[in-house]
Amino acid sequence: MAGRDYDAIIVGASFAGLAVARRLTGRVLLLDRNEVGAVQTSACGTPLWVPQALGVADSVLQVHDKLTVRAPTRTVTYDLSAVPFCTFDYKRFCEGLLDQTQARFLRASVTGVEDGAVLTSDGRFTAPVIVDCSGWRGALVNSGSAATPARGDFSFGLETRTALEDEGLSFWLDGSLIPRGLGWIFPVGKGSLIGLGSYVGLSKLKPALERFLRDRGTVATTYHGTYFPNRLFRPTVGRLFAVGDAAGQCLPLTAEGIRPALYFGVECGRIIQQIFDGRIALSEGLDQYRALVDHYRRAYRILRLAQWAAEHVPTRWFVALTGLAARHPVLPRWWPRYGWFGRFDPDPSPVA
Ligand SMILES: Cc1cc2nc3c(=O)[nH]c(=O)nc-3n(C[C@H](O)[C@H](O)[C@H](O)COP(=O)(O)OP(=O)(O)OC[C@H]3O[C@@H](n4cnc5c(N)ncnc54)[C@H](O)[C@@H]3O)c2cc1C
Questions:
Q1: Per-residue pLDDT averaged across 172-189, rounded?
Q2: For ligand 1, is residue 250 a contact (CB within 6 Å)?
Q3: Measured from the CB, is residue 268 less than 6 Å from ligand 1?
Q4: Which of 3.40.50.720, 3.30.70.270, 3.40.30.10, 3.50.50.60 is the CATH number of 8-46+85-148+231-311?
Q5: pTM beyond cutoff 0.85
């Protein structure tokens, strides 16, 4: 039987967990209750540079250089060509990252942490460094009890794969379809993922989604949906690091959570490797990671304010604002800045 003592334990083998593991040499245990890449929860849209920088460009399904915002009163088209977006295959993306790690992957459910040991369905494991990448529930940072999706801190998204083709990347703002939320169509090469998101965490979205699909002349296949945070939580709790949705790093307004999970994961991994190398103590590593996340608090606050506006300002006014943001010379001032947020190293070399 493999050992039970490690240099680091990472809980969650999705975007955040794989990004942390990818940077680490040493004895690392990567735990997840599902096989890597088996359970997709998102539409998997992200800037094209992200899979390219991580060496998993073969997971890209479709490149998008336009985004259309549709509302009952008008349609606004954004030119994304300065930083194109893409949709990618979740399984291929995650498996590609797993191939780049030296960690031992174990399929096991984690129930909490006790006396410095991680408790799992496969017994106890110990390590000086523990990272919670378990998504919105924060299996460790919330002491094993599920995070409460309190109104305000969590949004909810539900989507389905459809056969709909030939519609570009689009967001739909329509209070009669979903109040205080948005709809989306993300083409994925063959067919599209179509979904609805509620900024206020309403989870009974199926009837509205079915109506949305009917209006588009298509039908649902399988559904997936879950909560995602729209507020930064604590990046460290005691001696635990938290990355991705477990730390509330999903961006408010746009609900982009993949890129922040990967970015903070890469950076957290870099800090942990310094601890492994004896260059800094664990306490310094925790301080460094907290300082890094704090650096972005203002940007998160601005996006949260924009999300508040999307929820409360009448749709036609909000869409008029998005129309202004899509125009030259306004667009080139903010889009590349947003699109390049979280840029990884130009040559992020994975562990040998
Ligand atoms: C419908 C929908 C569409 C979305 N679309 C996009 C999009 O297009 N682009 C984008 O950037 N973001 C999108 N998001 C947000 C994005 O999915 C999340 O922000 C992102 O997945 C966070 O990554 P993560 O690694 O932190 O957590 P997750 O991807 O949630 O991964 C957590 C991992 O931990 C494992 N786990 C959880 N609990 C335990 C436990 N107790 N024991 C063991 N393992 C456990 C899970 O199995 C999972 O593998 C979407 C969200 C939803 C709901």
A1: 95
A2: yes
A3: no
A4: 3.50.50.60
A5: yes
